[in-house]
Amino acid sequence: MAFWNHYHLPPTVDEAIALLARYEGRARVVAGGTDLILELQQGRRSPVEALIDVTRIGEMTRIEEADGYLVLGAAVTHTAIVAAPRLTGAATCLVESCGVIGGLQVRNVATIGGNVAHGLPAGDGTLSLVALDAEAEVASVLDSPVVKFHLRREWRPVLSLYAGPGQSAIDQTRQVITRFRFRPVAPGEATAFKRIMRPQGVALPILGMAVWLRMSGEAVEAARIALGPAGPRPLRASRAEAFLAGRRLSEDALDRVAELILVEAKLRTSKHRATAEYRRELIDVLVRRALPLAERRASTGEAVPEGVGLA
Q: Can you tell me the distance from the alpha carbon of 294 to that of 302, in angstroms, rounded to the nearest whole number?
């Protein structure tokens, strides 16, 4: 049985979008294919007329700096992110989260864009992008009465790309996530990522947390905390973030942060991973691992990724 009939390798975003328009909903974008190809093979997705491979598009495979942002192409692999020196200190949590996705073979081909486009609330790379307050550039085919083909690009918050568990707000028949951008950490700022996982051939996340902190002396000036799976999309723990502003990371403060995250988190039982009750206990564990680590990094300016490369 053929899962697709045509395979295209466009060299530009414009050509990839034009191909999507030409196939009128019967084509899908592919990069690493670690999710899409399995879904086709296992019958969880219907065969398509064409696959449009975006791994030859230069702007989608680069890591660069522009206008004060770090810019990651959506087709950059997790291995490339882990190996990028400029991300080690500037986005430590992203290096840590991408370094524990699947096994080495998966990380060599799976992409950061695929991690987001698949719509899973426990996407490790996605949690770090949320903590980094990242935006995604989305290229779209637009209907126009004047021209047959019209392309629009717009930057959107990463969380806006989620419609529900396993459901992307991206129309994969007309849109492509091309790049991500975020500000690198400044002096007094740092990030960290921690995850509890259950090894089953590949590392399945039970619960993950990414944090970004800006310190003012010994007090937290601002915080961003992302958690998953804790609802239909990655959770931004806004109540805990607001509580931390102006406070030191004392034992009492960490207790309260865990309590506030529990108020917002919608945890569920998974027969393959963990019960909701177990995940509730893990929130406190992750809070006490991730937040003090980010605080220490912000205070010392040193950021050596932890746990990278473990399967």
A: 10
**Residues 182, 133 contacting (CB under 8 angstroms):** yes
* Domain of 227, in residue numbers: 189-300
Residue with tokens 């996705």: 101
Residue at 285 is within a domain: yes
Secondary structure (3-state) at 84:
coil
Residue 310: the pLDDT is 44
User: Which residue's entry shows tokens 């893990």?
Assistant: 282
Which regions of the chain are under pLDDT 70? 1, 143-149, 199-203, 309-311
> What pLDDT shows up at residue 311?
39
Order of strands, edge to edge, in the sheet holding 175-182?
63-66, 69-73, 175-182, 135-142, 150-157
Closest C-alpha to 170, from 128, 126, 108? 126
Would residue 270 count as lying in a domain? yes
Residue 75 lies in a domain: no
Letter for the amino acid at 270?
S
Report the pLDDT value the prediction gives residue 144, as an integer from 0 to 100: 56
pLDDT for 272 equals 76
Considering the domain boundaries, does residue 10 fall inside one?
Answer: no
Please tell me the predicted confidence (pLDDT) of residue 37: 85
